[in-house]
Amino acid sequence: MACPSLGQATALSGAGRAAVAAARPPKRENHAMGTTKTTARALNRATLARQLLLAREPLEVTEAVRRVVALQAQQPASPYIALWNRLSPFDPAALDTALTDLRLVRSTLMRITLHTVHADDYAPFREAMEPTLRGSRLGDPRFRASGLTPADADAVLPPLLKYAEAHPRTAAELRTWLDNHLGTPLDTNAHRLLRQYAPLWHTPTGAPWSFGTPQSYVTATPPPALADPQAAAEGLKTLIRRYLAGFGPATVADMAQFALVQRPRVREAVQALTDEDELDVLQAPDGKTPLYDLPGAPRPPEDTPAPPRLMAMWDSTLLAYADRGRLLPPGYRKLVTRVNGDVLPTLLVDGHVAGIWRPLGNSPGAAIEATAFHPLPAEAGKPWPRRPPP
Description:
By secondary structure, the protein is of the alpha+beta class. The chain has helices at residues 14-22, 40-50, 61-68, 78-86, 92-100, 119-138, 141-144, 150-163, 171-182, 188-197, 229-247, 252-259, 263-275, 333-336, and strands spanning 71-72, 104-108, 114-118, 169-170, 200-202, 216-219, 280-283, 290-293, 309-310, 346-349, 352-359, 368-372.
């Protein structure tokens, strides 16, 4: 199906904005386990509100990234499209500048994938992910096959990070340094796994989209604590608070899925936060599963209007839950998620995935091609957002 005519995005109506504002309780509600039941549509609207998808907001790019927690960034264009969906105005050069100045940073974090996050969030997020990253990178059979052990990695990281501290180093430079330091060539897979484990930030290699195929890295500052169980536990509590602010209400399974963290760790952190009276406990639509949320977080009425959006590839909203049905109807999941794990750019209509889209060329005037999975309501066709900037 061809895409409807493109125009300016529909802003949330005055009534809709008022509904979102009214959804913020003036003070904490004390919920006993399961006494407040939610609906699937209400959860959808809560996600859209917190992800700035009910109305574009006039925020600085750094504040916007903090609000949405993190932007999936395997594909260099994805953070730009994600912010274009959420901000008005949005200038791609502002994101370039924030990345160049390292106010926003790109590194391997949640789900062991590249994310763009606020620099101030990096250390606690990385500490939260430490057990997962250490196990998956240094415990990988390809790393062990190199003859190196986790203890060897612990020994080599301090001088490696010192080498990458002064200015960015290319992947080739890091590999040469490692080979010289170890006194033997390091296997390509082992080098990649060690680099992904190390607290390194990707640095821009030039516009457009700031990151090209050649990779360049600089040491994260301040450095996160590695192999420190207490730091990992505190970091996970911080990540859960931030996750709920951007994606809640959510279950323990949702939190574990978002980060790819073991559920027992999540349960322990959630229990600690609940015991500290930091979380509300709601009831999921199934009437059985507890949902956790921050007191006073936005929970708009389920009839709040949701404008159409052209979502980025791997947009975090589609990956942040164990039950992806919050935005992605189960029948469409195989149409959106490829066998290799790629999550295609999607059409969002009334807050739910209704199709996929792709650009037809890279020039400023190029069109897009959109395919809907079902007939779209007439109001979804006018107006649509303009094509993302090249």
